[in-house]
Write a structure and sequence with these properties.
312 residues, mainly alpha, Ribonucleotide Reductase, subunit A, 11 helices, 71% helix, 0% strand, globular, metal-binding
Length: 312
Amino acid sequence: MTPQAVLAELEPVAEENLNRHLSLAKEWHPHDYVPWDEGHNFAALGGTDWEPGQSRLSEVARAAMVTNLLTEDNLPSYHRLISTAFSRERAWRTWVDRWTAEENRHGIAIRDYLVVTRGVDPVALEHARMVCVSQGVDDPTGTGNHAVLHGVAYVTFQELATRVSHRNTGKVCGDPRADRLLTRIAADENLHMIFYRNLCAAALDLVPDDALEAIAAVIEHFRMPGAGMPDFRRNSVLIAKHGIYDLRQHLEEVLLPVLRQWNIFDRNDFSGRGERIRDELGAHLDKLAVDVVRFEEQRDRALARDAARRDK
């Protein structure tokens, strides 16, 4: 079935889930989550510019907040990619534009919080934003395929990963206001994930082998869309090292729950090709489970070394 035919068949599902989303989405406003009374001018308006001592966030919290925000900042690229994979017609267009408006709210709220509370260097943050948005995102799936099946598979996992990351970032900020804000954002991400997860479930019923092939390819090549941002490697190591988003969470809180929801390993509607893909996917997940243990052993040793250095 061609991508255009798949889109046409899935459009009623998209419309149904769009209506479901609109019935469940909560209205909220970024300004209600920002402690404006803590704000004061920077030097350009007669105040003082940012200094590291002004931040009450830990190094880990700063790394996580900046990574989450810069990921949200690349929204123009995500809008382009999803519009290309889907359609600018009817329910597809309504969903993509609504999703974009809701995601934009996340970046507004996080940036306002960080600037008002002086949690991070606003100049460095703006430089990083310019780099991210200027280079954009072309293939977050890592598969080289921009068709609808790869798109809905990727955003299902990515939205859930983002929910986990936002939620855990809130917990390490040491500020109940940041936790409240990121909990609110995580709730949005969860609703977005459900929309895409339901679309992908319908695609599995429609074209089982092709949908599974897309899912397996996305899982094998998965990377977060912020992989090209400044300091991503350093920040992602900190984030993983301190349990905000690590390999175990990726496997046990993102990949496996969604695959269970789709009933991937108990379905009986795959052809021989689909069954081969499923076997390969199972082997890949088994390897990830081994990698989880190896990563955690290395992390525990690194944390022990850090603790020993602090004691000295």
